[in-house]
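Async update (no meeting this week)

Hi team, since we skipped the sync, here's where things stand on the single-chain job. The sequence we agreed to prioritize is pasted below, unchanged from the tracker. I ran it this morning and attached the output directly underneath so nobody has to dig for it. Comments welcome in thread, and please keep replies under the output.
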Amino acid sequence: MAAGRLLAGPGRRGTFFSMPKTTLVPVGGPCRRRGSAALLLAALASLGLAPVARAGGFLIYEHGAVATGMADARTALADDLSALYFNPAAITELPGLQLELGVTGFLPYVSYRAARKTPDRTYLGRDAGGNLAQIPINDGQNDAQAKLRGFAPFHLYASYNFEPQGVALGLGVNNPFGLGTYWPQEWDGRFITTESELATFFIQPTVALDIARWAGFRERLKLSVAAGYDLAYGSARLANRIDLRFFEAFYPDVRGAEGEARLRGDGLAHGFNLALYAEFPRIMALGISARSGTDLPISGPAEFFFNTAGERVRERMLSDIPSETKARFSLPLPWQLNLGLAFLGVERLKVAADLFFAFFETFDEICVTFDCQEDARRPCPSLTQPPQEKNYHTSWQWSLGAEYQAFERISARAGFAMSMSPVPAKTLSPDLPDGTQKNISLGAGYRSGRFKADLGYMLGLWSVTKDNDVGGFDSAGNPQGKANGTYTTVAHILALSVSFNL
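Output:
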């Protein structure tokens, strides 16, 4: 029997329309053609990407124990080297040579509560007796728990202040973007994603200029500006199951036909950052910093695996799919803007407020190209696929934090923040179950001479309900599964930093 496409929808029986196999050969541009299986599309939705699938897209905003203990309200404060991330201009207020090394541990608990609605979609498949029948599609019937995995991004900061010259140099290394979600192999949303992982490393050299020192008014107003370069390295690992149940109607011996797609890759990108710091001594301070967006190109091997029934489908209908080829796509990293205000008018007390914006509008779709698509000797039209729609919008977070020097060597910190997701309801996906996040933080610091140690803890809580068509029929007519329901995340974040003033 020729290949065909099943059309089914709410409240109606599936209808089968025959079409010749030759229609599997795509027409048009490489990212807008249609192929016989969605394959990597679902996994690539994960790049819409902190290592705990945290709210705020795939952005990590915890880059030091002091900041973590104050819910990241640090843009207008100049007493810690985490300023190299939050406001590089503030390093003009740090004397001599400063070094800081730290790690932030993330431990997320992500759970899925299925919607359990009466199935309203069917596909033409085979029942337990092997007869053709309309089979209900599971769009969310079974609860699941994501695999528990911890992550530990690090930060390394250094600065040197040439005070007489009014110039400070800084170098920061951290991980401002990331993602990690790992679902069971047989869960309801396995055709959307089973594994999504992104790691980034940014190296940021910075030059800060002490304008107030040059102009001679530091006693009344401290004013600094800074500019820096960002070298970004990113790596990704993505996986999802491949649904081949469409072919059950043609071949009685391919019931339960599935495959798996796995992609890993890396790439380099470049950007820049600008910052301003102003302080009225013992009264208040303000800070502004901006970081450019960039496109991170990811390329690497893509591998395809099939179970026994899936191999039969591959041999008969999808023989052009190689066991391995190279894949590439571009991940847009957003422009970012930090605004901060700090109150310094009470001895031993600092109170700060921040607004942070990440402009994810450039992340409108993910488009994957496989090298074999451009191989005239052995093309792979079955891997060609339309782009994955994302249509993200601006994410923003407000933070309030306070630090009190309780004793000569010991400081206590606390904070609260809310982070708004950039993911629209229409494209929400279980690879990044992103919602409005509430963060509660506590921290403490110990200082002795030129040595400083800080500890910060943050509890992140958010929940979001998926009720959309992501995970519906793919471009060939495989039913997949939407995995609609409620996704809840509880994230424990613990940061430790040690600093030296040499």
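Quick observations from my side:
The longest helix spans residues 308-317.
Residues 4-501 form a domain with the Porin fold (CATH 2.40.160.60).
Reply here if anything looks off.
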